[in-house]
Each structure stands twice: as C-alpha cells, then as structure tokens.
Design a protein that fits this description.
By secondary structure, this protein is of the alpha+beta class. The protein has one domain (about 10-335). It has helices spanning about 10-15, 20-25, 60-70, 245-250, 300-310, 325-335, and strands spanning about 80-90, 95-110, 115-130, 140, 145-150, 155-160, 200-205, 205-220, 235-245, 260-270, 280-290. Strands 6-3-2-1-11-10-9-8-7 form a nine-stranded antiparallel sheet. A two-stranded antiparallel sheet has the order 4-5. The longest helix is centred in the N-terminal third of the chain and has 12 residues, at about 60-70. It is globular and about 65 Å long.
Amino acid sequence: MPHHFDSPFSRRNILLGGAALAAASALPGCGQGQDQNQVQSGDQDGAQDRIDYDWMNPMDNLEAYFKLTNSLKDRDWVHGWYSGLVFGMLPNNTPDALFGLEGFGLGYTVRQEDGAFASFWKEVGFYKDLRTNEIIETWENPYTGETNKVMHIHNRMVKGVFGTNFRSQAPVGDQAGEMFFKFPNYRASDDPSNPFILNWQTSGDQTSVWLDFRGVVPNLLDPEVWVRESTGELLPVCEMFEYVCNDDDLRNPALDRVKHSGSWIRLAPWLPWQMMGRHEGRLFYRCTTRGLGSLDELPANILAYAEQNYPEYLVNELDEDMPSESSFEVYMKENEPAPT
C-alpha cells in the first residue's frame, strides 16, 4: 500500500517522472485525519443541493481537489491527457523549442481511514517532431550536434498519499542541508502545521485552483558513473499545475468527479537521453492538460503508438504493491552509461 511522505526523498519519483497528471497525483503527504464530509454522495438523506466549501478548511480543500482532478469514489478509474512543447533554456539566450510532448495517464484513488486519499497512477509520454508532429525515435541535438536516441516516458507506477497537511521535505543531504521542498500554502502561509489549503478562484461559472512546488532532490544518476547523462549530484525542479472546472459541477453533491482542463509548467534539468552532461541550461515544459471520459478520446496517433509499443498502459490494471518508479530509475534499468 502507499507510503505517507514522512521519509527523505520519497517525492523523488514524482519529481523525476516527467508527466503532468501523475506528478499532480502524488505531491503532498498525509496529515491529520478528519471525518469524511458533505461531498461523498448526493443520495444521502438530507443531502444538500449545493456544497458550500470553506476554502480555509483543509478537508474541504482536499475533497474538492480530488473531486476536480480525480474521483471521490474508490478505485474509480480516471484518465488524463497532456500535450505541449519542451524548450531548452541557455543562460542569456532566447528559449529554443526542442520537441513536442504528448501523453496520457490513468489510475484511481482509495480513501484511507483517516480521510486521506491514496493515489495510484501509471503514465506514458511521447516526444514529437516540432514540424511534422510525428512521434520521434531519434533527436538531432542542436547543442551538441549529435543524434540522440529518444527514451519516451513510461512509468508503471506513481503513487502517494494526500492528507490535510503538506509534509516538509527532509534535507537533501550533507552538502545541501538547507534545501527543502517548498509547498506554497497561499492562504495559510503563517500556519506552522502547513495545512492543505490551496488558492481557489471563481470567475463567472468557472472555478480554478493552483498547486505548485519547488524543490531539490539527489540525482539518481551518479555523475561519476553516468558522465554524459547526469547533470550533477542535485536536481532542482519546479512544477506548476492549474485546473479549471465548472463551479456548479464542483459543488454538486451528486457528482463524484467533474470534467476539467488545465495546464502544467515544469522547469527541470536536461533529460538523460539528451547526453548534455553538465552543459549549462535547463528544460522548460509548457503543456495543456485535460481529463478524459476514456482513452478512446486520445488522438489517433497517440493511441496507435501506445497500442503498438506500450499496450499495458491502455488497460485498467494496477498492482498497488508495486513501488513508485521514476523516469530516471527506468532509464537506469534499461540503459548502460554512455561511453565518454
């Protein structure tokens, strides 16, 4: 079963995974449990017609967030899609569009006894040619002049637990003990317990919410061993998510989940397969995200490529006991260090 995020580096799987929806599904740790409340079901006796969320109440935030992004019903399979561009950013230079990125994820949540939500997810993401929009297997690196073999995102399990409090991340290590995960707690930033309170906004008939974080984690790719793949001992990563839905749907007690769209922004080091080593710069991801009714709503080329190369990601099956697996861990399993 999923672990609560109490131990050092337990978020590394999310930070290194690279896909928007899975990253959003496993960020915070579990805090104090509270009673499950008004949004669980619309057919209970005396159920209200419209949920009046208190955005200063962590449990209201938690339940609204999972209703928007996932489902309040246990093991109710949900599917999500994302698509965008990845840019290279060198110091004092205009960002370079390097390739497209499009993929999907699927999974579910399980409510815990203390009211927290355990999230289970698997994901794929495919890099694409900027001009043809076709999925690529090799990439012409404009910075090194080399042709790189592409490794697409394929993570079999990303899991974690959301509760009513964010967890503070333990120090990264002896050489960077001052670095912690920073979870913006927009409306309760002075509360030392760091409650799960997000920045909800309503405009017209639409409600949106942000969830973002900044952190530094140890690099799983030892730069002394993975000389060309590793960008160094530490990985600074910034992830920013936004979700938008219909406000009436969000407040409808008869619904366990709602349609939503959103965006994902990521700042992160070079990918291992780019063979950039300690070359200056980083990557900037800008993607649109959307919840799907089913995987049949995927673009035809994405669905066809997944059917041919990653069919296990099209099936509603997950092993909840499987450990989380990041893209960097997958890379290490499937590759040997490149010759120097």
